[in-house]
Amino acid sequence: IASNCSVTLIRGKTLSELWWYIVIFISFFCFCYVPEAELQVAEAVALVDTLQNWMVIDKIIIPTKNPNKKFVFGKGNFQVLTEKIKKLPHVTAVFLNVERISSLTKKELEGAWGMPVFDRYTVVLHIFRCNARTKEAKLQVALAEVPLLRSNLKNEVSQRDQQRGGSRYIMGSGETFLETQNRVLKERELKIRNALEKLRRKRALLRTQRRKCEFPMVSVMGYTNCGKTTLIKALTGEAGLQPRDQLFATLDITAHAGCLPSHMPVIYVDTIGFLTDLPHNLVESFSATLEEVAYSDLIVHVRDITHPETILQKATVLSVLRNLNLPSHLLDSMVEVHNKVDLIERYKPTEENALAVSALHGHGLEELKQEIEKKILTATGKKILTVNINLEGPQLSWLYKEATVQEVEVMPEDSTARVKVIIGSSAFGRYKNLFPNSEIFMS
Ligand SMILES: Nc1nc2c(ncn2[C@@H]2O[C@H](COP(=O)(O)OP(=O)(O)OP(=O)(O)O)[C@@H](O)[C@H]2O)c(=O)[nH]1
Ligand SMILES: [Mg+2]
């Protein structure tokens, strides 16, 4: 992807002001194979299509130099591109599919083509801006915007200096224009970071409360658009969840209650999707959201098995997960789900332990729930037991308080009951101490 670029032509001044876009999409490759470059183009087209009113009207793959250099492509290719763009009257913006273009390159290309030029960072950031719903996601987007504002500022200042011949002090302040603007940006960044920190502390508190309830937590992760939200909707029956055929539909961590086969309550955590080469600053701004994953008891890795790049997507997800410094037991116990199998006839996973599922049609969910339950019991040290108790004694109310009671089968003839419970290891130890004569059967 580093060797790829895409270009978008847009009508309007800034991304947010645009509302009717016709896009020309140009992708470049140098050392990659053409099929790979085409897949990268497909992903870039999907990014543009995610935005309302944006449309890709043309795309091209051409060899590129190092995208970080001042000239992304050679003179010949630049001419080919310029002619192509001029021949397409509806083109309003150009999207270069490189992570970042320098502000100088941007300025020069915009000058030559007479329209805005975007890179991957700007486009992904705009998608995030459109999809951010909660206060936290909005703050994270604002934080990711700061480096962009900073580089625009540098550009603006060098332009001013050229026009006026040297930097000027703002009247009476003793600060140059650049210093004032930098200070304002720094203050803004600090304000956003403080607000995010406050929200983080609140989340940590909620986490502690959730821990007290001892609800196991399952983080559902995977590449963007693989079906994470659809799967959680199917597992919990929560009608309010809205899966969308869009990249980065989910930007906020949300928790949803579900129930495992033995009636054990569980919390599924929906997370932001991954993308190959997700711009670095964006990853940093959103990594706090992923902090939550470290506190879960299990990770479910969802894969869109119908995607032509499903193997590369898996590698991307695993590499991001490894970089999150998660506890090793979480990585080792991960459950791999092959989703969208309804689109492949008689699909059988090649990977050992992977589970074939259609989240949309509800296939394979029971097997998945059983697997999740098995892993949760191992991870949390919880046990499923059946105990014989005397109904006249305090055991039943104790179990209701300290464990999850699943079934009570009363034997009226001798005032006893068989009680099926899910119990944590420390509670189990206390139970055995308090009621040493109680009959216990392991499930
Ligand atoms: N055919 C088929 N489509 C599915 C299945 N699961 C999800 N989809 C579709 O895939 C698209 C993406 O689904 P989401 O659940 O929003 O995916 P996501 O992983 O949450 O995506 P982001 O939040 O954007 O990262 C939607 O159009 C779903 O209807 C499935 O099992 N079969
Ligand atoms: Mg989602």
From TrEMBL:
The keyword Membrane does not apply. GO terms for cellular component: cytoplasm. Its cofactor is Mg(2+). GTP binds at residues 222-229, 248-252, 270-273, 339-342, 358-360. Keywords: GTP-binding, Magnesium, Metal-binding, Nucleotide-binding. Residues 216-380 form the Hflx-type G domain. Transmembrane segments: none annotated. GO terms for molecular function: GTP binding; metal ion binding; ribosome binding. InterPro entries: G_HFLX_dom, GTP-bd, GTP-bd_M, GTPase_HflX, GTPase_HflX_N, GTPase_HflX_N_sf, HflX_C, P-loop_NTPase. Mg(2+) binds at T229, T250. This is Putative GTP-binding protein 6. It comes from Geospiza parvula. The lineage of its organism: Eukaryota, Metazoa, Chordata, Craniata, Vertebrata.
